[in-house]
């Protein structure tokens, strides 16, 4: 096993420049366009959980694009940009800590999300990061009081003039190769939602994500994906070629396919499913995450000098099916994690297999996987429903553009033996029933707080 992994590592290294058999270099994305937001399965913006190592693992395992955690505009204005000469990690540092970290390898796929209630501040924040990202997204959906009381997040949904002025300012200030997008929630009324969508699309954005819950809905309320098709058709009717991205209750590649077929959405975005398992984008996501993903994550995070509290928080969220490890072993792992005080704490030694890769080797695997991608890698192209009926009427993953096998990094032997897609939401049979919990719940916030407080509290 040790030898196999090292050999696989070596075989992924670039051949020497003099090698006559060197394969032609694959074409890489130069910059994103409206089309880049179509046929994708994306990592959602997640404060804390969307940390750099999570985004890198998501890309390694098939996420088409990744959104960074929301950063409030003001926080970025005085950030100092520092590049680590060894790892290449780019940090935007505040007074006491890095507020946002990225790595150049993710830049072609990285969307930076801003929380803002002011066009000028949003533009300044976007300018601070624009050389390190491919797109800027405006958060118009966070229902948490820390966001809404300042007029940001979901508060923008009831202030469309301000919302649109921020998007317009961003579009005007950003160079054309930087996309500008928005992430909204549904309004309680569908006609109001369409009016808002029309205004947003007219600002010149490249894509629109719709979290199919209203501001007052909780995560446990089923996403109202039944409302999305009308929005998709409406945006298509505007003729601007804008992608509509579904968000809400998708947990896997198979779910994404079913949701796209049910809603007509161009792409799907996954949040909590990826928080539990950043490899959920793969057609064969990792199982036994305590033994597979978690050790790799901790080593990579250590190499990238991720904050330990953040690493610990992210790893503690991991959850997946157990195939070969016993419950008792998973429990031992969680106990070790909760006792650990740093990435290198000896209490963690027991979680590593003797052949475990170093953090640098993990990074090299990820870099090689990402560099091997082409513009069509990890795209989910569905059959055109308007085309004549296919020979095989039962849609399967083969009918989508399948992941390039050579690029599927999930190790063999970890296939899911169960029928996939069990978590996919069905179209609501009764919209009113779906609405009830939201109406009852009043103004309960949905998005978890970004705990701007000291991250070490997670340690
Ligand atoms: C831990 C966590 C942090 C989140 N942070 C953000 C954020 O920074 N920006 C944002 O627009 N949404 C944020 N969300 C909301 C998600 O992006 C997504 O809209 C929501 O979880 C629904 O998707 P899901 O059903 O796949 O979880 C967050 C969600 C979670 C679970």
UniProtKB/TrEMBL annotation:
Pfam families: Dus
Superkingdom: Eukaryota
Biased composition (Polar residues): 407-416
Signal peptide positions on this chain: none
Region: Disordered, residue numbers: 382-459
Every DUS-like FMN-binding domain range: 43-311
Required cofactor names: FMN
Catalyses which reaction(s): a 5,6-dihydrouridine in mRNA + NADP(+) = a uridine in mRNA + NADPH + H(+); a 5,6-dihydrouridine in mRNA + NAD(+) = a uridine in mRNA + NADH + H(+)
Record keywords: Flavoprotein, FMN, mRNA processing, Oxidoreductase, tRNA processing
Compositionally biased intervals (Low complexity): 383-398
PANTHER family: TRNA-DIHYDROURIDINE(20) SYNTHASE [NAD(P)+]-LIKE (PTHR45936)
Protein name, UniProt field: DUS-like FMN-binding domain-containing protein
Organism expressing this protein natively: Hohenbuehelia grisea
């Amino acid at each position: 096993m040790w030898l196999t992994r090292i050999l696989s590592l070596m075989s992924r290294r670039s051949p020497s420049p003099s090698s006559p058999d060197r394969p032609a270099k694959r074409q890489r994305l130069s910059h994103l366009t409206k089309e880049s937001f179509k046929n994708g399965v994306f990592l959602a913006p997640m404060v804390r959980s969307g940390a750099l190592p999570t985004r890198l693992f998501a890309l390694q395992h098939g996420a088409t694009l990744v959104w960074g955690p929301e950063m409030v505009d003001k926080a970025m204005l005085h950030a100092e940009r520092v590049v680590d000469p060894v790892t290449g990690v780019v940090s935007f540092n505040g007074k006491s800590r890095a507020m946002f970290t990225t790595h150049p390898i993710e830049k072609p796929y990285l969307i930076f999300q801003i929380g803002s209630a002011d066009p000028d501040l949003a533009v300044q924040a976007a300018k601070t990061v624009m050389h390190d990202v491919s797109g800027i997204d405006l958060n118009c959906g966070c229902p948490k009081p820390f966001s809404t009381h300042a007029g940001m997040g979901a508060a923008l949904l009831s202030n469309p003039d301000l919302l649109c002025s921020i998007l317009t300012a961003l579009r005007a200030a950003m160079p054309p190769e930087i996309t500008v997008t928005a992430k909204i929630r549904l309004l309680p009324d569908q006609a109001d939602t369409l009016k808002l969508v029309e205004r947003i699309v007219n600002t010149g954005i490249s894509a629109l994500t719709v979290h199919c819950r209203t501001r007052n809905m909780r995560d446990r309320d089923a996403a109202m994906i039944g409302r999305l098709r009308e929005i998709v058709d409406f945006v298509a009717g505007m003729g601007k070629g804008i992608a509509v991205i579904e968000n809400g209750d998708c947990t896997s590649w198979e779910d994404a396919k079913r949701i796209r077929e049910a809603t007509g959405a161009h792409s799907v975005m996954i949040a909590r499913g990826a928080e539990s398992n950043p490899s959920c984008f793969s057609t064969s996501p990792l199982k036994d995450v305590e033994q597979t993903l978690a050790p790799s994550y901790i080593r990579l995070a250590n190499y990238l000098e991720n904050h330990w509290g953040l690493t610990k928080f992210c790893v503690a969220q991991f959850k997946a099916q157990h195939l070969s490890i016993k419950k008792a072993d998973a429990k031992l792992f969680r106990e070790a994690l909760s006792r650990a005080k740093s990435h290198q704490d000896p209490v963690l030694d027991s979680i590593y297999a003797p052949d475990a890769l170093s953090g640098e080797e993990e990074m090299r695997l990820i870099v090689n996987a990402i560099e091997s991608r082409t513009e069509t890698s990890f795209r989910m192209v569905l059959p055109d429903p308007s085309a004549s009926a296919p020979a095989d009427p039962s849609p399967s993953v083969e009918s989508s553009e399948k992941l390039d096998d050579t690029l599927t990094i999930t190790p063999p032997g970890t296939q899911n033996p169960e029928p996939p897609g069990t978590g996919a939401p069905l179209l609501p049979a009764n919209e009113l029933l779906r609405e009830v919990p939201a109406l009852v719940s009043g103004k309960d916030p949905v998005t978890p707080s970004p705990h701007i407080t000291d991250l070490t509290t997670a340690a």
